[in-house]
């Protein structure tokens, strides 16, 4: 927690990859991190090997204060990154050591502090409503105070490019106030995001030449040039680059960490991450999307699921011969993969390939493959999607193998549903109660069970467990991890169906199943049923193993 | 249909905005245009004032052949743009006039033809499997033949930048073959999308200096720099820029037409569109997303719904004073608008600003503002989000005004719920039935009504209408347009709550309301209730108008 420089990156302190997902990224419309989320984000960024993780604004946002407290208490063990607290300079007319906001930055325990300072004279006058002199004094005093308390300090020169265009002298004197007072570097911020690479690079070059200061760059994407601007600034002399995961941020967003790192490493040859971490780019990007509860952008440079996919007829045959002619990069370098899209959604070849990936051997079973292709197309036309539901797809493939008379691959269903009924009551006193009753046949018995739950699906799951666990105790090992709902509407809006994804887990693995129906509870039931059937399948496979595998000989 | 140059753009033929949404954009995973779609796309692009619309590859794709036939038959009346057919040069060893694919280009009737030609020697040898000489002859023969038939010809030099880096002499001789044979210009294509602006601009500058040819630029987004690369190429001497709407295209996509045009016009001052068309940018972008059946990207530069939205507490108070300090551009210039987001980061200033946007005057009502801030924060901590639910927020603000004793702003609730009960049956025969019963008080009566529906929420909505419409016939004007569900899970996964957004519409407007609860049906109920309350509010406001407004005097 006390490290102030990045550890273990080949460029050491000479070049900073500085992530601000947890502060500037969190400004994106729709993102709302819990403290637990924030800790998970910081760990993922650290595992990628970024040099600095800006954790938030302690003292301004209660969640951020708590994040730093929990980090300081030992919940965050960063291997590569130094932790950074973001905050403002002291208020006008108040000594730095008496400003509670400045105090909160020190109390956060963060070894590095980034201060935001106004570099555009118009902002000083019109928004801050103070003089240029007092603005510079606020910066210098606060930097000096924090440095005196043993912290490393960076200064974000907000609205720098607009400010420099409007009044270069004022903007440069702000940088001077920061660096002279002890800040390690000044970050030139394109806060409004209006810059283009050529002009921005010229300014960076000029500022470095005129001041000799170490400068960083912070770009917003309002001209769709944030990544290009960041890279151009580095080429022009910036040695500290601020990014956010997947470009999350206010308005059009920030410079995307993964594209910037991908470009610096693979196009400019700069070793900006520790050895072996570049292959984590795709995984970390998708995991961070998951935590932000946003769908990953399939078309994102380097890390998108479609970014190395080819569907052009022009290319398809040539790609087979010579993939490197048609990709700017071997996708494996960034942990991504090439896909060739079949224009019909599920062709025989892609299903066979997918089967092999899932451990279902479909070679020599043409009828099963044909049946599976038909079944998948029919289901996808009704709104099913197997892209994220491998467990449901594996069950489907095995059922088709069975139906085609191949060696039976699916165990008998461990139970059968006769019926269920769910009751939802909003009572006159305002209380809302969900209750489910299931009637099932299991182990030769008919069982009826009723349970309450937090919502209809939770009640149904509870009743099902109530009925089954006494007969199938292994079902108790299955925990529901996540539950996602998507309403699929056709053009008229009337025939909406609901697609439910259920993520389950036992001590060995996690798996995802899917259900689709006009009724959300029935869709959930279909996904739940598959989740339990998959557990039964795996349990059978494991039970078989000692009898047939090499372990049996020594038993 | 016979125009070969752009009409009515201020730069005339000196600068080309060339759109290839219908050909290269259609390569995007998930896009499948019908011929009718293609005609609609071409009309929208033309209405924006682009110079060239590339319609597809006649002869290679049946839909594209049909598109050109219907265009030629009079279904496409372009005002600004010249229509372009895309195709390949003659095959190796076949005279151009005998090649059926070349024939199809002429038969399309398109006045302008863009030929793709291989500029990278490795592609000629390994993919085309012919010699560099024959490749150049294929280009020259085909260009000469088409020009001889009265067509204007452009040549896309595919993989130009990789090819130039590998063997500059070969790449330049390909350009020479095209231009010497009569092509108007050669388009330098970053087909694999691996370029960065600085290197790409250097190459463009060098090629222009060495050849003196007119060149165009075509960029893919694999380094997230397609827009920046396009602009840098224009600054380096390219006078023809190929883009696709919203950056649609294979892999990471193409250069986004709207960002490129926005940058050229507002940052570099180039009048690339006819007067008055820049304000159509946002509308056309969204309409083209609609036709592609893709959600518009809320964070897209210039045109995204969130691109001029502000949620930072830091900025909100200053934005109120001086919006131009915080936007790189007046959003009205591109037909977009500024929004203030209400979130947990929001303070009093942003709520007041948002209130003004919604027509709720909170000035001089500090208690109401304070109450609203507390209420919003409390609800957002429990999973509510008002970012996308303006109607719920307006009701909240008006209720706080009432509570603070200000002039009553919300009408009495038009009805009161006593209780509801929803029954979901999965019967032994497999049928799934949803039935809801509501007990409500409306117009002094207690009404009980029961209805079936497609799922629990649909049944509840149906029962509610059954109960209320006889007493409040205006409720029948409200249609449910969309329904979105989001499960919000905390880290442990047990205390999940459900957030429901309901989008409603009558003949005058659309509005969105939100509900959050552990039980999805109750969350839906809360959103439904607000949807009807909002309708009642608007109805009252409209009913009041003739009685109090100037219209009353003449009535």
UniProtKB/TrEMBL annotation, chains A, B:
EC number of the protein: 2.3.3.21
CDD domains given in the database record: DRE_TIM_LeuA3
Gene3D superfamilies (alphabetical): 1.10.238.260, 3.30.160.270, Aldolase class I
Reactions the enzyme catalyzes: pyruvate + acetyl-CoA + H2O = (3R)-citramalate + CoA + H(+)
Alphabetically ordered keywords of this record: Amino-acid biosynthesis, Branched-chain amino acid biosynthesis, Isoleucine biosynthesis, Transferase
Domain Pyruvate carboxyltransferase: 15-282
Keyword Amino-acid biosynthesis carried by entry: yes
Domain of life where this protein originates: Bacteria
Keyword Transferase annotated: yes
Pathway where this protein functions: Amino-acid biosynthesis; L-isoleucine biosynthesis; 2-oxobutanoate from pyruvate: step 1/3
NCBIfam families assigned to the protein according to its UniProt record, in alphabetical order: citramal_synth
Similarity-based family: Belongs to the alpha-IPM synthase/homocitrate synthase family.
Annotated protein name in UniProt: Citramalate synthase
Organism field: Saccharopolyspora gregorii
């Amino acid at each position: 927690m006390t490290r102030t420089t990045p550890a273990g990156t080949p460029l050491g302190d000479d070049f900073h990859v500085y992530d601000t997902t947890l502060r500037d990224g969190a400004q994106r419309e729709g993102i709302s991190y819990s403290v637990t989320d924030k800790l998970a984000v910081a760990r993922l960024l650290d595992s990628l090997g970024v040099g600095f993780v800006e954790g938030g604004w302690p003292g301004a946002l209660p969640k951020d204060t708590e994040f730093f407290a929990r980090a300081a208490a030992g919940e965050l063990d960063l291997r590569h990154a130094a932790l950074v607290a973001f905050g403002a300079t002291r208020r006008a007319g108040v000594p730095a050591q008496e400003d509670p906001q400045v105090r909160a930055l020190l109390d956060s325990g963060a070894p590095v502090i980034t201060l935001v300072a106004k570099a555009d004279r118009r902002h000083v006058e019109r928004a801050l409503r103070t003089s240029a002199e007092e603005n510079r004094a606020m910066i210098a005093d606060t930097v000096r105070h924090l440095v005196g308390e043993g912290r490393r300090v960076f200064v974000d020169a907000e609205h720098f490019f607009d400010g420099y265009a409007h009044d270069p002298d004022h903007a440069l004197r702000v940088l001077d106030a920061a660096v002279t007072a002890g800040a390690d570097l000044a970050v030139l911020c394109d806060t409004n995001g209006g810059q283009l690479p050529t002009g921005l690079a010229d300014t960076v070059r000029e500022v470095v030449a005129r001041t000799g200061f170490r400068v960083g760059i912070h770009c917003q994407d309002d001209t769709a040039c944030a990544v290009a601007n960041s890279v151009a600034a580095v080429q022009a002399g910036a040695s500290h680059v601020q990014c956010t995961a997947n470009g999350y941020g206010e308005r059009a967003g920030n410079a995307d960490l993964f594209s910037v790192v991908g470009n610096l490493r693979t196009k400019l040859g700069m070793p900006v991450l520790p050895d072996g971490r570049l292959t984590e780019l795709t995984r970390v990007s998708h995991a961070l999307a998951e935590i932000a509860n946003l769908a990953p952008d399939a078309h994102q440079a380097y890390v998108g699921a479609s970014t190395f996919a080819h569907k052009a007829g022009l290319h398809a045959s040539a790609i087979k011969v010579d993939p490197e002619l048609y990709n700017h990069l071997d996708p494996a370098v960034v942990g991504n993969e090439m896909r060739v899209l079949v224009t019909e959604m599920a062709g025989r070849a892609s299903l066979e390939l997918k089967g092999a990936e899932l451990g279902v051997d479909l070679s020599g079973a043409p009828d099963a493959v044909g049946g599976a292709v038909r079944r998948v197309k029919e289901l996808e036309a009704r709104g099913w999607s197997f892209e994220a539901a491998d467990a449901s797809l594996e069950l489907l493939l095995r059922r088709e193998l069975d139906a085609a008379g191949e060696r039976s691959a699916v165990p008998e269903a461990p139970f059968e549903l006769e019926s269920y009924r769910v009751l939802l009551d909003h009572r006159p006193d305002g209380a809302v109660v969900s209750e489910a009753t299931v009637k099932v046949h299991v182990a030769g018995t008919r069982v009826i069970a009723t349970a309450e739950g937090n919502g209809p699906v939770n009640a149904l799951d509870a009743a099902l467990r109530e009925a089954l666990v006494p007969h199938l105790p292994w079902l108790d090992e299955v925990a529901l991890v996540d539950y996602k709902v998507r309403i699929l509407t056709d053009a008229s809006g009337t025939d909406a169906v609901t697609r439910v994804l259920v993520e389950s887990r036992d001590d060995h693995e996690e798996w995802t199943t899917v259900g689709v129906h006009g009724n959300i509870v029935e869709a959930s039931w279909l996904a739940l049923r598959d989740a339990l059937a998959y557990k039964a399948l795996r349990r059978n496979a494991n039970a078989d193993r000692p009898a047939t595998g090499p372990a049996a000989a020594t038993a």
